[in-house]
Design brief:
Distance between the termini: 36 Å
Helix content: 40-55%
Shape: globular
Strand order of the largest sheet: 4-3-2-1-5-6-7-8
Structural class: alpha/beta
């Protein structure tokens, strides 16, 4: 018998921040990366804080900076910090998605998480929430166990629809009564595949698409959860 599945993004959807951003800060604290690395995205960060620039531009610059900065970093040191970051932020989640995960788990749903943050961080973070399978980016290592800054299977992991198709086939999942939760336009492809797409705290592009498609839109602000 095929299992019902629920698919979640993690950063900004479950976790109330970005695991990658927190990971960079932790690596700076551990003196694995220099403090000056944040200067590479200061402009985009300030523009976002001042609501003069989109979050997507900021986070994309963070991703670019991270890949460049970790070149030559010892993988074991990197992995140790990611575990610490995941444990430290384990409970810093949104109430809506936390409770939805618990409800779906009780109802026998197979819980799947797809993230563009490093797999070491998302797997440690998602394990405590009861996820059955977690996909994240895999950093390439050289023959000395150092990160190269490249991401393996990048075309695959950055296409969440492809990931969902692969998981459904391997894990014998049905998309008929499936639930999907995302927060940006990059999630549209997999949200179109599920029975109940939920746009949680969506950005403008996802919000506009969801309104046209008649999808569920949920916003959590402080201690209030409401639907639009």
């Amino acid at each position: 018998m095929k299992k019902k599945v629920a698919i979640f993004d993690i950063d900004g959807t479950i976790f109330r921040s970005s695991l990658l951003i927190e990971l960079i800060q932790a690596m700076i604290s551990a003196k694995i990366l220099p403090a000056s690395v944040t200067k590479n995205y200061d402009k985009e960060y300030k523009a976002w804080l001042d609501r003069k620039g989109p979050y997507e531009k900021y986070i994309n610059k963070v991703i670019f900076t991270f890949r460049k900065a970790v070149k030559g970093v010892d993988y074991k040191k990197f992995a140790a910090v990611t575990e610490q970051v995941a444990r430290f932020h384990q409970n810093r989640v949104y109430s809506f998605t936390r409770d939805l995960i618990h409800d779906l788990k009780k109802r026998g749903y197979y819980l799947l998480a797809i993230s563009h943050s490093p797999k070491e961080a998302v797997q440690a973070f998602g394990k405590g929430l009861g996820f059955d399978k977690i996909y994240g980016t895999i950093g390439e290592e050289d023959d000395k166990g150092r990160l190269t800054g490249k991401v393996l299977h990048e075309d695959f992991i950055f296409d969440k629809a492809k990931v969902l198709e692969r998981a459904a086939e391997k894990e014998n999942l049905t998309l008929g009564e499936s639930v999907g939760v995302g927060d940006t336009e990059s999630d549209i492809a997999f949200l179109k595949m599920v029975g109940r797409p939920i746009c949680f705290n969506p950005n403008k592009k996802l919000y506009d698409y969801a309104k046209r498609a008649g999808w569920e839109i949920v916003v959590e602000r402080k201690d209030v959860i409401y639907k639009i």
